[in-house]
Amino acid sequence: MPLEGEYEPSPQAWVREQVERYEATGGGEANTLRDTGLPVAIFSTRGAKSGKVRKQPLMRVAHEGAYAMVGSQGGAPTDPAWVANLRAHPDQVTVQDGPEPWDGVAREVTGEEKRRWWERAVAAYPPYAEYQNRTDREIPVFVVERRR
Length: 148
Hints:
By secondary structure, the chain is an alpha+beta fold. It has helices at residues 13-24, 81-88, 111-124, 127-134, and strands at residues 40-46, 53-59, 62-63, 66-70, 93-96, 101-108, 141-146. It has a single domain (13-146), classed as Electron Transport, Fmn-binding Protein, Chain A (Pnp Oxidase, Chain A), CATH 2.30.110. The protein has a seven-stranded antiparallel beta sheet, with helices on both faces. β1 and β2 (53-59) form a beta hairpin.
């Protein structure tokens, strides 16, 4: 069941429009990162401060039913806002990869597990490697698995 509560659309028009189109078509449209042809999934999180539902399309990095959320923000010096949301509310995330969203639980990965997920992420979206080189921060990676 998708997260409930007040939805706060992204201030970025392209993100807001992509999420709206993806959800309206059950993932049939707006399911790639702009013109790259590379697939995305929609992740909903609970705002760390506001408590509002936030939605973001992120690169589809999936393995054995789990999904990675890579906090690259294009190699910016700060984490994307959703990283704080997940750290505050790791049990309040919904994944939509196609028509049916599902509830998940996120956990930040480290060490060998992070290395494996990072390799999967770079295979799915090669610019991630460049983004890590652009920033001094270590790009966080979260794994989302279905809530039991």
